[in-house]
Amino acid sequence: MRCPFCGCTNTQVKDSRDTIDENAIRRRRECPDCGGRFTTYERIQLQELMVIKKNGERVPFDREKLLRSITLAVSKCGISNFEVEKLVEEIRRELENSGVIEISSKDIGEKVMEKLLHINKVAYIRFASVYKDFKQVKDFEDFVTNITANNC
After folding, report:
1. Helix pair angle (137-149, 121-131), 10° resolution
2. How does pLDDT run across 121-150, given as a tens digit for each residue?
3. Measured in Å, how far apart are the chain's first and last C-alpha atoms?
4. How many domains does the chain have?
5. Same domain, 11 and 78
6. Global pTM value
7. Residue 41 · residue 25 · CB < 8 Å
8. What is the largest CA-CA distance in the chain?
9. What is the pLDDT of residues 12-51, one digit of tens each?
10. 69 and 16, same structural domain?
11. Whether residue 105 sits in one domain with residue 94
12. 38 and 27 Cβ atoms separated by less than 8 Å
């Protein structure tokens, strides 16, 4: 593992343990050259998922990108980092276990929205505003009216 501070490739593992959800191994590492310490996570990956973006481009599934977008949507909603990690891991596992190798970004967005709706409605609306590309206040109003009408 390359040291993020000096680039040395001879880092040493000082401690390994399961994460709280037991879906990854957390490793504390130290660089013998600069003394820098950092953490890495090792996760099982069943198959390489490809995401088909709106423009047709195919890119590898990026768990960190999903984590960032959900974290942004749930910020200031009282949802812990552990809950967000658990949600991202649940979505990733569902995608890998679905048996498909390619999945559209639209399907991923719908899956995230479905999960957020049951966790926190404000986070759901915040995620939807970016995912559905709201341009005007009316877009928000229509969306919230639809949620209220459907008793979500």
Report:
1. 130
2. 899 989 988 888 888 888 888 888 887 777
3. 46
4. 2
5. no
6. 0.67
7. yes
8. 62
9. 999 999 887 777 899 999 999 999 999 998 877 667 899 9
10. no
11. yes
12. no
